[in-house]
Design a protein that fits this description.
By secondary structure, the protein is of the alpha+beta class. Among the domains are: about 35-210, no CATH class; about 415-465, no CATH class. Helices cover about 45% and strands about 15% of the residues. It is built from 14 helices and 13 strands. The strands form five sheets. Strands 4-5-6-7 form a four-stranded antiparallel β-sheet, with no helix packed on it. A three-stranded antiparallel β-sheet has the order 3-2-8. A hairpin with a 2-residue loop joins strand 2 and strand 3. Helix 1 runs antiparallel to helix 6 and helix 6 runs antiparallel to helix 8 (about 300-315). The mean pLDDT is about 80.
């Protein structure tokens, strides 16, 4: 009687222990983010702007995601590649040799090929970037300012300073200085670019900010999925022994291989990994309770989280996950449309910032007498009867530049060019439109072609019938045509 009671009690204890382990694995550990103590809810009553402490917290969380989260790293790298990746160039529009040489020297000394990518990376990750200009000899140098050190001093006297930025009391968009590491730096020495905020908000917001909770949620979801998969793979190997309970216990003790050694002092082989061995007699039978979690469709939750992350960053899903296996060519081309427009918008925004860098460098060169203040340019003049003529005159040297960004989509240039030639021949598009479709500026290309033709006067259009060489007479044909005497 008591023996049967002990057996039933032992069975209940084993079942309860197994169920308790399942519940703890799926709730206590799996649903808890291991680094949740590092995350802080940011944003106060005014959701448009962040306080200084919230700004710092957002930046630290963005750093953590960029260096620890693969999806966050991929998002930032995408913008870095498509804005300042391979093929990115900033070239002066002026043909003045001294200006071109001065800019090329600045580009080389400051290693702008790498620094331009860092400008994009810092801006998208931190929500802003600060560049300070220095002068080393006759060459301008630029250095990044740590945004965490731009903050109001403890004993600040100015009342028109917020988050380390001093503004005109009558115009918040007019910046007069920056408090950097406790010192006031004049605004003329600094270029500041902020993103994802209104014009009257002084500090920017990271593109990762909107996706931060979803990135953490996806990490927890993936962690839970891994633990559920491990639980489903649990196997129990039951060994039944004919005999009494004491005999069964002795057999189980004798066959314990955890500490016993073989004759050659090597350890006995244990049960296969993930397999539990239970030894019992005929009077005891264990019914292993496998977790019936009904979580076959839980993968849809993970995809929903990824879609939310993609939507917050303005990217299609296959770009965020780097997996296009669930999309065909047609759907991928459709999904690329919004992404292309997103990248083009960011290219336009960064173009203004790089133009400011170019203008500052040329202005410094003029002030140092390294670049002439004027240049000889051809100016159109409208005369009598609206006749347009050209004349050369001295004008202020151009501080404009032309920026070339990486190609956004993979294109078949040969097929596209043939299609444009056909459309142009049928009169469906103009030369201006065809040139734009190829990603070039019609006016600039037209001027360059004209300059090349002036430099090469012997250049002959072989397709022009007037330039075709005269055919030499065929002497044999002439002999045949002579009349017979």
């Amino acid at each position: 009687m008591f023996e049967g009671f002990k057996i039933r009690a032992l069975k209940k204890q084993i079942e309860l222990k197994a169920l308790t382990q399942i519940v703890e694995a799926t709730t206590k550990d799996a649903l808890r983010d291991t680094d949740e103590s590092m995350w802080t809810l940011i944003g106060g009553e005014d959701v448009r702007r962040l306080e200084s402490s919230e700004q710092e917290e957002m930046r630290l969380q963005a750093y953590h995601l960029y260096y620890k989260n693969p999806h966050a790293r991929n998002i930032i790298r995408l913008f870095e590649k498509y804005v300042a990746g391979r093929g990115f160039k900033v070239e002066p529009e002026s043909k003045d040799e001294r200006l071109v040489a001065y800019w090329d020297n600045f580009w080389t000394v400051n290693k702008m090929a790498k620094r331009s990518k860092e400008i994009v990376r810092r801006t998208m990750r931190d929500g802003e970037v600060f560049i300070r200009f220095f002068l080393s000899g006759l060459t301008p140098l630029i250095r990044f300012m740590n945004p965490g050190l731009i903050k109001d001093p403890i004993d600040k006297q100015s009342t028109n300073s917020s988050n380390g930025i001093v503004t005109n009391p009558d115009d918040i968009e007019e910046i007069t200085g920056y408090w950097y590491n406790g010192k006031l730096v004049p605004a003329i020495e600094v270029l500041h670019m902020k993103i994802l905020v209104d014009s009257d908000v002084l500090r920017g917001r990271s593109i990762l900010e909107i996706a931060m909770p979803f990135l953490a949620m996806y990490y927890k979801w993936l962690n839970t999925r891994m633990k559920l998969s491990m639980l489903r793979s649990t196997v129990a190997l039951i060994k039944k022994v004919t005999g009494t309970q004491s005999q069964t216990a002795n057999i189980a003790s004798e066959q314990n291989t955890n500490i016993r050694k073989a004759a050659d002092n090597s350890a006995y082989s244990k049960a296969p990994e993930g397999v539990s061995v239970i030894t019992t007699n005929q009077g005891v039978d264990y019914d292993f309770k496998s977790p019936n979690l009904q979580a076959a469709d839980v993968h849809h939750d993970g995809r929903a989280i990824l879609l939310a992350i993609a939507a917050g960053c303005g990217l299609p899903e296959f770009m965020v996950t780097s997996d296009a296996s669930n999309a065909n060519y047609a759907s991928t081309m459709v999904a690329e449309g919004p992404a292309v427009m997103e990248f083009e918008d960011w290219q336009d925004k960064f173009a203004e910032f790089f133009k400011e860098i170019f203008s500052n460098v040329i202005t410094m060169g003029i002030n140092l007498n390294e670049i002439p203040p004027t240049e000889l340019t051809t100016v159109p003049i409208v005369g009598e009867d609206d006749v347009i003529s050209e004349t050369e005159m001295q004008t202020d040297i151009s501080q404009e530049c032309q920026i070339t960004f990486p190609d956004l989509v993979v294109r078949d240039i040969e097929a596209e060019t043939k299609a444009l030639i056909l459309q142009r021949g049928e009169g469906w598009v103009s030369d201006h439109t065809a040139t734009s479709e190829l990603g070039r500026d019609y006016d600039i290309e037209h001027e360059l072609i004209a300059e090349e033709e002036e430099e090469e006067p012997d250049l002959i259009d072989r397709n022009d019938p007037e330039n075709m060489p005269d055919e030499e007479p065929d002497e044999e044909a002439e002999d045949e045509e002579e009349p017979v005497q």
